[in-house]
Design brief:
Layout: H1 2-24, H2 27-55, H3 67-86
């Protein structure tokens, strides 16, 4: 059940990312962002699965928290941190504005 929930969250996030990037930029930018997220997901799942299998084995800790569930949970935690840093908007500094224009324009 945990893998289904995590896959559903990733699909929902992918659709949101596609719609948001398409609205703000172009279709090409939206597809590029979703492709980048897909690469991060597949590479991250491989690495987190490797770490969990070394630590806990394929069986995991229980029937519910098996190796795949634990690796997807670990992946989701890493992705949340990564995407918060990656998609964070940089603060606007007054010295970044062009001369003669107000900083809040």
């Amino acid at each position: 059940m945990i893998p289904v929930l995590i896959f559903w969250m990733h699909i929902t996030a992918g659709v949101y990312l596609l719609a948001k990037r398409y609205y703000e930029e172009t279709l090409g930018e939206a597809l590029l962002a979703v492709g980048f997220a897909g690469i991060i997901f597949t590479a991250g799942w491989t690495l987190s699965s490797f770490m969990i299998r070394i630590t806990f084995g394929k069986e995991g800790v229980s029937a519910i928290l098996d190796g795949d569930s634990l690796s997807l949970i670990l992946l989701t935690v890493f992705e949340v941190v990564f995407y918060r840093v990656w998609f964070r908007k940089s603060p606007q500094h007054p010295e970044d504005s062009t001369p003669g224009q107000p900083a809040d324009a």
